Amino acid sequence: MTTRRPARGYRYARWHGGPDPLAPPYDLGNAVDEIGDSVLGGSGVREALRELLRRGAEGRRGLDELRRSVRERLRKARTAGRMDGTLQEVRELLDRAVEAERRELFPDPDDAARLAEGELDALPEDTAGAVRALKDWQWRSEDARQAYEQIQDLLRREVLDSSFASMKQALESAGEQDMQAIKDMVADLSQLVDAHNRGEDTDERFAEFMEKHGQFFPDDPQTVEELIDSLARRAAAQERMMAGLSPEQRAELADLMAQTMEDMGLASEMAHLGDALRQARPDLPWGRRGQVPDGEQALGMGDATSAVAELADLEALSNQLSQGYAGASLADIDEELLERALGRPAVDDLAALRQMETELERQGYLNRSGGKLELSPKAVRRLGATALRRVFAQLDAAGRGDHDVADAGAAGELTGSSREWRFGDEQPLDVVRTVKNAVLRTAHEPRADDSRRVRIAVEDFEVVETERRTGAAVALLVDLSYSMALRGTWGAAKSTAMALHSLVTTRFPQDAIEIIGFASTAQVLQPSTLAELSVDTLQGTNLQHGLMLARRFLAKHHDAEPVVLVVTDGEPTAHLEDDGTPFFCWPPMPETIARTVAEVERVARTGATVNVFALDPDPGLVHFVHDLTERAGGRVFTPDSDRLGEFVVADYLRTRRGRRTR
Questions:
Q1: Are residues 515 and 636 located together in one domain of the fold?
Q2: Measuring CA to CA, which residue among 382, 380, 464 is closest to residue 428?
Q3: Is residue 633 within 8 Å of 609, Cβ to Cβ?
Q4: Out of the domains of life, which is the source (predicted)?
Q5: Which among 351, 385, 518, 621 would be 20 to 30 A from 426, CA to CA?
Q6: How many CB atoms lie within 10 A of CB 123?
Q7: How far is CA 599 from the centre of its chain?
Q8: 76 and 91 assigned to the same domain
Q9: Residues contacting 655, CB < 8 A, separation 6+
Q10: What is the pTM of this model?
């Protein structure tokens, strides 16, 4: 028995499931190219990515520019004002009160007035002691009484404002009922923080707290963690502000704060809250002396605490943007701090950098292996293609190149036969047989009219066979000695090798190419290895070993046209001994030169032409390479490093257009 599946239905509607699935992928081309340039120049992949993030890309500011803007804000914040504004204002009010009281006492002949004057003369010299001594004073002067009450109001506002941001405005006209609301808030807050520190679920309690006391927190925290973080940062900033005062100022202000807390009945509760906040955020710089503003304007305690908190935030943000510490990542950068410091556009710039970093891995350009960041094969192919594109741009700009080989297949004797066209073939088309194939293929197709047009398809093409060789074997020898890095030609040499490899593998797949790097010894290099290859600090330019490897490569492709290209910046200074160990000497020893020349002659006997690209006009090098190319029937080029790729690629194209036939 068979069952029939129900028909499947489809519905089409507006997409609401996230990013547009049909949107083009995030364009990383320029980012990969910039990373590639740094890697080819000798940087590690992680270092290259870090440099890109510092510079920025695609019109977005990088970390360095963002940090410069933060440092400018930091410079301005350091001149916000002095920390002793509250203490100075209290002193001025105290002097006004005492002076007004003296004026009131002076005309009174009573002994009580003289006794009061004596008590005023005996007031403690420190401001806090004088304020405490006058706490129960029976004021005769109304102006003096009002001035002293202003001291009390000022201290209440500033002390609470230094602990709770924007509390100053809430206390401008506070009465007994308002003060009781503040006491209730502090008590409930202490209990909430304690519960959080015990690991209890405080979501419901936090919601109740904000519903009851939300007017005291204009920044409107959304979670208990946000609330605690804000309060703890401000408490730590208050300690830093106090630490920035002189010892005398710090002692006086601490005494005034203690008196004020006692008068408001908040001393024990605020002390408990401070301990709870410190327990919740032990990572904050509690008690540490840090940067404090130092300007001309005197700041009250609340404003001074805010200024110190801003300095601390800017310092932390600057450190995050520097990414100069172990394990640094873009996830460390606090978006809220960044937005407060530089505005929303800065957060958008950071988001673009984060997206670029994520997409580089998601799209397969960077791989992580064992904690190491590496270029993927996809990225290496991109680097080769980019290097080749730049080379062709130079060729076109110089009016030379013709890299589309227009006369492909012209060389060599015709065999009189043809065969089907295959990708990469250079032989000329057999037009007659191509058209014949198309006619035969479409002869049986019905025609709606008497049209005699012939539609040619790919499978119809045939090419004329010639006797000339069907491919080339290209050995590119690249000097990777330390002197290349010192002269700044390291990146150009690697980029040139990548470009030529990309050209051969993508445009001329019938050709074979091998990249051989030589320094103290020589080695065959894959593009992925070459891209991330670091500088060989061992001394030596072992061209002999490189030519030995080239000869082995050519032997594997004996039916192909042999092409040997050498990029170097110095005479051979190293060779392999009979037992295979490398030997180095500067200036070059005759034995090194002799062994190298002997290897050149062996390569020449394979039929290969050896062309040399000398990157240093040193007479010794020029004389040597001219002698070398005369023995191998090649040529010498002396390009600048920025035109090396142009010369090498053009020479390869010229060689394969004119290669010999058997």
A1: yes
A2: 464
A3: yes
A4: Bacteria
A5: 385
A6: 17
A7: 47
A8: no
A9: 472, 561, 563, 609, 611
A10: 0.66
Asked whether 378 and 25 are in contact (CB, 8 A), the reply is no
107 and 60, same structural domain? Answer: no
pLDDT averages per 10-residue partition of the chain, 662 residues: 52 62 67 84 83 86 93 85 82 91 88 88 88 89 91 85 70 67 88 92 91 86 90 86 84 87 86 90 79 73 80 88 86 91 92 90 85 83 82 62 37 62 71 85 68 78 65 87 79 85 82 90 87 70 92 89 86 88 87 90 87 80 80 82 82 67 36
Instruction: Give residue 432's domain range.
Output: 418-464
Q: Are residues 432 and 340 in the same domain?
A: no
User: Is residue 563 within 8 Å of 469, Cβ to Cβ?
Assistant: no
**Structural domain tally of the chain?**
5
82: which 2 tokens? 């002095």
Spatial distance between the Cα atoms of 102 and 97, rounded to a whole number of angstroms: 9
Residue 514 lies in a domain: yes
| Tens-digit pLDDT profile for residues 7-19 | 555 566 666 665 5
- Asked if 38 and 144 sit in the same domain, the reply is no
| Residue partners of 496: CB distance under 8 A and separation at least 6 | 387, 391, 478, 567, 644, 645, 648, 649
pLDDT tens per residue across span 544-582: 999 999 999 999 988 888 888 888 888 888 999 988 888
Residue 509 lies in a domain: yes
Same domain (yes/no): 576, 639: yes
